[in-house]
Amino acid sequence: AAKEEREKRGLAHGGYESAGQHLSPHVISEHHHTDIIRKIAVPVPKPYRVEVERKIPVPQPYPVPYKVDRPYPVAVPVPQPYKVDKPYNVPVDRPYPVPV
């Protein structure tokens, strides 16, 4: 069964893999350094500042209808003319009796 397995893999005549030894001391592997790896630059987003204008809602006044019985809720006094004595000059140097 082992011989058939080796024949399937192409090692029927006892290759270096079956013997467990290297090709030569200086050869590490037949596939050593055969892979080409290229680093492709991928753009990475960097953080940046964005100025944002904050729109804060300000309550706007609006008229609210309400019921009024009369034009003004209390009686408004009407100015009336009344008699006043005619002003006259009073000397300031002597005392002046004032009715209390």
Automatic annotation (TrEMBL):
<feature type="compositionally biased region" description="Basic and acidic residues">
    <location>
        <begin position="1"/>
        <end position="10"/>
    </location>
</feature>
<feature type="region of interest" description="Disordered">
    <location>
        <begin position="79"/>
        <end position="100"/>
    </location>
</feature>
<feature type="region of interest" description="Disordered">
    <location>
        <begin position="1"/>
        <end position="25"/>
    </location>
</feature>
<protein>
    <recommendedName>
        <fullName>Zinc finger protein 512B</fullName>
    </recommendedName>
</protein>
